[in-house]
Amino acid sequence: MRIAIIGFGAVGQGLARVLAADDHGFSVTAIADSKSAVIAPEGLDPDTVLAFKRETGLCGTAGLAASDILASGAFDILVETSPTNANGGEPATSIIRSALSAGKHVVTSNKGPIACAFQALQETADQSGAHLMYEATVAGAVPIVNALRSGLAGNSVRSLHGILNGTCNYILTRMRDEGLTYSQALQEARDLGYAEADPTYDVQGIDTAIKLVILANTILGMNVDLADVEINGIDLITAESLTLAEDQGATIRLIGEILPEKNQVRVSPRLIPLDHPLVVDGTLNAISVCCDLAGPVTFIGKGAGPIPTASAILADLILIRNCHGRGA
Amino acid sequence: MKLELKDTPGQLLGALKPISDIGGNIITIIHQRDPTSTANTLTVDVVLELPEKKLDTLIQILRDRGCGVIRIGKERLLQKQTLIMIGHLMHTDLTDTVDQIDQTGYAEVSELHMVMPAINEPSTAKMTIRAVSPEDMQRAVALLHSVSRRKNILVLEPLEGVE
What is the ipTM of this complex? Predict the structure, then answer.
């Protein structure tokens, strides 16, 4: 099947590298970044485009844009990997809607459109018979969306608890292990590239909250938006609080929590026993769901990074091809 | 509670039956004859759980049956939860924060351990709350959250809920 990639930052380039390394049976026919685009209905060589991007900062011809790719129709699946805009999800939401209206499948790693406009996008997809998939929006390589939808199909989820932000988890891990203050651990996370220059979304719990909204609305049958989520971040956590927690055999982690029966969604730093399966170190993500039939099930894995995220995107691409494939 | 019973057969059973009749649960019984006592009585210490607001009924039934109730021990608060609070705890009236829980009648603060690194830095405290039932614990924690929000204090709850 033919793929167009919109957004050629770390995630888009990671996907291109994965597709170039092995023959997964997909052909990349178009790529756009924020300043340029390239369209080749006969197929592109991802390595060539990656090299061109490294040299020039552009993926193709300046002046061409995502809208030209949409107009060309030279793809079966649109992969949307542009950065998240949690405030309405634009311009990605419009691009995704436009592709779905044209009957094209969409795979996205972009949390904004799924958190802000899932219902409307899914309706557009249903009308045109296209598929909208977004495994990469929550917990990177951890296949939580497809696991809840397929692997645990038929179960009622009683509760979901997760560590969904690697930056926060890294900071809390370092504060516990090395006795660092919050600011020291944050600076270290920045130096290592785990935290953004402006880490507000991560450390204040907003990124975790957006992921909870996605899971609550798209999998757990709830209807919540970001304003409904009670959010506390980790920016007030003191070194002393980790010592006091440790004294009682516990530590502190930023936990996203969904209790569907109570219609409750919240993000808060919590005291958690050191031997609890959710206590994962460094930038790992972990999600524990408690189901009526399966009981407790825990998933742990890499929550971010270009290649783990490409893994989730690739899984969605292969699912679309295997289950709903049209064309070559 | 400590009971005084006549030292005759059947008295102990007669004193314990009302406890189960009103839905109570007997945890331990200690009874000892006091060799120095000249009265024909023995005392029994009973530790028990009772449904809420049933204590007065039980005392009345026991007295009606001729059992002397010598002493009522402190009600046991069976639920325990330890939380951490971060913020300007002293400057926002810590006594008031604790009192809000203590005055509920169904929960109380039983332990507080505070660390204050510097005058203008936020302090951190570990607080243990005891409550009569899991529902009361939830109410007490919700109350602590609401007081803390007003005072800009962050409350960290345990993930596993009530211990």
Answer: 0.85
